[in-house]
């Protein structure tokens, strides 16, 4: 049976998500009406509107960076790997993205550090198109199929790889296809370009509510992440080159202060507070959908911004299974993150 295409409302909603990058920089600019004493910091993000980056978005939207005297400009990219590349190329100062990029950077001889942890679980899910795979029974049915990820090398790619490996599916039997985020990712699944998709919310909740997509792998809760990784897996964080941290300690501290302030706000925020705070485009035209997606991942946000004690070791152990460069490198875990800025921010905001 053929399934109906995206409704006009749903299509417009996802298109709005893709355009969400327009909102965040504008909010930051409007907030700086009286100038920023510490100047400007550019943050690269892979998929600005997804819940994965919510603490950063809130710090921006609520004016917390402005309170710190910092002008933050967010530049959006279609995938986390591309945002990381932007920092390497000098197009951005700091990245909001997956902690594993810090590990991979060190393996390649680059000094990066995670500054503040936003998420304690990947917040990703793997969905299968029942239109493309109508007789789907288990992950083994994806052998010989195409799995959509934001880009090869991004956290969506690694999460999908880990889920498939755990199910005993050889990765050589699966083709990973970079499909970006937002409208592009959803259309790639619904058009049959890919038969499965690994993505973040609220996209996956929207797909889950449709009859043609089945969630077959879920890392949107602390329990699911613990079961998968046998430890706390640091995911979304702000990270920066060591050179930037050393040259701009005041800007770095202000940036961390803003995110820690947002994490504190998030602990007690009511649903009505959240939908008022985020840019309207993030809601995808459906507040109920957005809040349903948020409720799935709310517990995974860090309560204080600190790197979990076992976090770096867990990440290295897990990711070494799929990244030969990490398995072969001598990673100095003590150099992958710093808690100095978070500790000062916690004192300031009593977190």
TrEMBL record:
This is NitT/TauT family transport system substrate-binding protein. One of its GO terms (biological process) is alkanesulfonate transmembrane transport. The keyword Signal applies. GO terms for cellular component: periplasmic space. Residues 52-266 form the SsuA/THI5-like domain. It is found in: Periplasm. Belongs to the bacterial solute-binding protein SsuA/TauA family. Keywords: Signal. It comes from Acidovorax delafieldii (Pseudomonas delafieldii). InterPro entries: SsuA/THI5 (IPR015168). The keyword Transferase does not apply. Gene3D superfamilies: Periplasmic binding protein-like II (3.40.190.10).
């Amino acid at each position: 049976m053929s399934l109906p295409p995206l409704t006009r409302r749903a299509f417009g909603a996802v298109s709005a998500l893709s355009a969400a990058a327009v909102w965040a920089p504008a909010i930051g600019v409007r907030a700086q009406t009286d100038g920023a004493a510490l100047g400007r910091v550019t943050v690269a993000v892979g998929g600005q509107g997804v819940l994965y980056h919510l603490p950063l978005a809130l710090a921006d939207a609520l004016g917390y960076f402005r309170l710190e005297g910092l002008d933050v400009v967010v530049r959006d990219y279609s995938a986390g790997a591309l945002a990381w590349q932007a920092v390497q190329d000098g197009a951005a100062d700091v990245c909001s993205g997956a902690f594993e990029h810090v590990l991979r950077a060190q393996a390649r001889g680059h000094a990066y550090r995670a500054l503040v942890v936003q998420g304690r679980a990947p917040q990703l899910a793997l969905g299968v198109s029942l239109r493309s795979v109508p007789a789907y029974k288990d992950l083994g049915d994806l052998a010989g199929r195409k799995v959509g990820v934001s880009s090869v090398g991004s956290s969506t790619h690694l999460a999908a790889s880990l889920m498939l490996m755990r199910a005993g599916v050889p990765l050589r039997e699966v083709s990973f296809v970079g499909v970006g985020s937002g409208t592009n990712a959803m259309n790639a699944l619904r058009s049959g370009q890919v038969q499965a998709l690994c993505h973040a919310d609220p996209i996956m909740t929207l797909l889950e509510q449709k009859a043609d997509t089945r969630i077959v792998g879920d890392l949107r809760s602390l329990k699911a992440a613990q079961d998968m990784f046998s430890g706390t897996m640091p995911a979304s964080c702000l990270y920066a080159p060591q050179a930037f941290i050393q040259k701009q300690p005041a800007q770095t501290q202000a940036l961390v202060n803003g995110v820690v302030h947002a994490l504190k706000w998030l602990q007690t925020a009511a649903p009505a507070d959240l939908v008022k705070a985020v840019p309207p485009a993030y809601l995808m035209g459906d507040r109920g959908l957005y809040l349903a997606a948020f409720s799935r991942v709310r517990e995974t946000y860090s309560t204080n911004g600190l790197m979990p004690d076992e976090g770096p070791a867990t990440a290295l152990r897990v990711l070494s299974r799929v990244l030969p460069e990490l398995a072969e490198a001598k990673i100095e875990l003590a150099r992958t993150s710093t808690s100095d800025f978070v500790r000062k921010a916690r004192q300031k905001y009593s977190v």
